[in-house]
Amino acid sequence: MPSDPESDLADLEKRLKAARGTGEAGRSGSGSGREGAASGAGIGLRIAVDLVAGVAVGVGLGLWLDSALDTKPWLLLVFTIVGFCAGLLNVVRTANQLEAKRKEDEAAARTNAE
Amino acid sequence: MASNPMDQFTIVPIVPLEVAGFDISFTNSALWMTITVVVSSLFLLLSIRSRGTIPTRGQMVAEMMYNTVANMVRDNVGSGGQPYFPFIFTLFMFVLFGNLLGMVPGSFTFTSHIAVTFAMAAIIFIAVTVIGIAKHGTRFATLFFPHGAPLWTAVILIPIELVSYLSRPVSLSVRIFANLTVGHVILKVIAGFVVALGVFGIVPLAGLVAITAFEFMIAVIQAYVFAILSCIYLHDALHLH
Amino acid sequence: MPQFAQIDTFVSQIFWLLVTFTILYILMSRVILPRISETLTNRQNKIDDDLGKAEELRGKAAEIQSAYEHALAQATETARSVHRDAAEAIAARSEKEHGELAEKLAAEAAEAEARIDKGKTDILTEMRDDAVEIVQAASGRLIGGSVDAASARAALDAVGK
To answer: Is 90 exceeded by the pLDDT of residue C26?
Structure first.
């Protein structure tokens, strides 16, 4: 194919711009999103752990304060409820995080597809 | 071979050692921590030794790990996160190689021990709290009370937020401990089936292969999650939400 | 579960965790990470450098191309003007030569005409003289007298009319 110097130069300019573009994209994009590979079971276990950890800390705090302040069993009762609420808060935060990550991945997938 | 699937978690002293009344024997756990340090360092050192502009395959893996953690720190810690990059990277590599080497038959998985995972989580928790207080002083307390909420809700919200904050090291350590323990027990039980069933062990063998692949994935994901949650906690301490 | 049963190993586990983790941290932060980041920086610099060079060369090529186009346009213009000048010169010369030739031809034609005229007159004069002589001679024979040349001529003129 006989090459036309003018279109060759325009082509080169395009390729240079593209190379610069991928260079920048390579530096910012990629990475993260591997968490999306976590299966439903993985997410389930994660949320269960979040909830149980809150309750466990609440129960632990309640037992400790009860024995220290001699208020058995009232603080245990209160802190078990507080712990449950904290566990729910953990779950909500994790869910929000996962949701945000999912949206981000989706957006990334969409821009990649374009 | 038909041993208790829990036996793989037993800690066996190799070199008994006692200092100031504390038993700090060099155990199979310590051995595999040492192997993890040696293998992860050697892997990185050997794969990047050429330092080529055009990377070799091993170098690409090493650089991918570097970039993954670098992006993780940048995306999740935000500004001011750069000084903590070496720590997060070490944490990621230590847990990742600990998990992966634990998949070697007959090895020991130190990340399946709550003492180890909780110690790591506690160190991160304490470090992050100290960093937050050092940076923000008393304003660090605003982490426990949502901005703009009615004052009377403080009575309810502050204990909940406080317990939630305190539950971080618990969930961080229990998550990885539970995942790896359950995974290794399942592998051991199914491997037991394969051996017990002999010729008919072909069905559980297929299952064993599938679960082994799944456990490798879990090994990587848990290391990643451990590192990324550390980043998120660090972010909260540096930026107060 | 040995994880909860072997509480007596906790100190040892945590001790060796701290030792090995610290060693790994020092190795990573002092040796390995600087090497990786150096390699990555070098590569990025090389890529930026190469792209910069390519950009520069592309600029030069574009410059050369525009210079070439300019020169080409100039050469075309020069050729056109040379061609035009030559055509004009040739036209002028051929017109001039044409004019000269026409003049010369006209002069030659005029001269030839004059010559023919003169010849004609000479011949007529001669013929007339001959006729006069013939008239004289003829009249002498016919009437026996001589007729002078003037009357013979007059008679001829009257007849010739």
So the answer is: yes
Compare all CA atoms of chain B with the CA of A89 and give the residue at the minimum distance: B164
Q: Is the pLDDT of residue A48 over 70?
A: yes
Tell me if chain B has a CB within 8 Å of the CB of A90.
Answer: yes
For chain A, domain boundaries: 38-114
Given an 8 Å threshold on Cβ–Cβ distance, is A19 in contact with C58? no
Residues of chain A found within 8 Å of residue C58, distances taken between Cβ atoms: 9, 12-13, 16
Walking along chain B (241 residues) 10 residues at a time, the average pLDDT comes out as 72 85 87 94 87 78 89 86 91 94 88 92 93 87 78 82 90 90 86 78 78 87 90 88 68
- How many domains would you assign to chain C? 1
Residue B121 carries which side chain, given as an amino acid letter? A
Range of the domain at C80: 2-160
User: CA-CA-CA-CA torsion for B44, B49, B53, B55, nearest 10 degrees?
Assistant: -50
Nearest CB neighbour to A57, from listed B67, B163, B224: B163
Closest to B233 in 3D by CA, of B110, B109, B77: B77
What pLDDT does C128 receive?
A: 82
| Inter-residue contact B16 to C8 (CB < 8 Å) | no
Interface touch C54/A13, C-beta < 8 Å: no
pLDDT at B34: 94
- Cβ contacts of B68 on chain A, cutoff 8 Å: 31-32, 34
The span from the first CA to the last CA of chain A, in angstroms, equals: 31
* Chain B residue with Cα closest to C4: B114
Cβ–Cβ gap B22/C37 under 8 Å:
no
Two tokens at C113?
């005409």
Query: Measured in whole angstroms, how far is the alpha carbon of residue A53 from the centre of its chain?
Result: 19
Dihedral sign computed on CA atoms, order B109, B112, B114, B120: positive
Chain B contacts of C32, Cβ < 8 Å?
41, 44-45, 48
CA C23 – CA C20 distance, rounded (Å): 5
Q: Are B209 and B156 contacting, i.e. CB atoms less than 8 angstroms apart?
A: no
**Nearest-neighbour CA in chain B from C37: distance (Å):** 8
Which stretch of DSSP H or E encloses residue C145?
A: none
Q: Kindly provide the ipTM of the predicted complex, given to two decimals.
A: 0.89
Half-sphere exposure of residue C155: CA atoms within 13 angstroms, side-chain side: 14
Q: What are phi and psi of B14, to 5 degrees?
A: -105, -50
Domain extents for chain B? 7-239
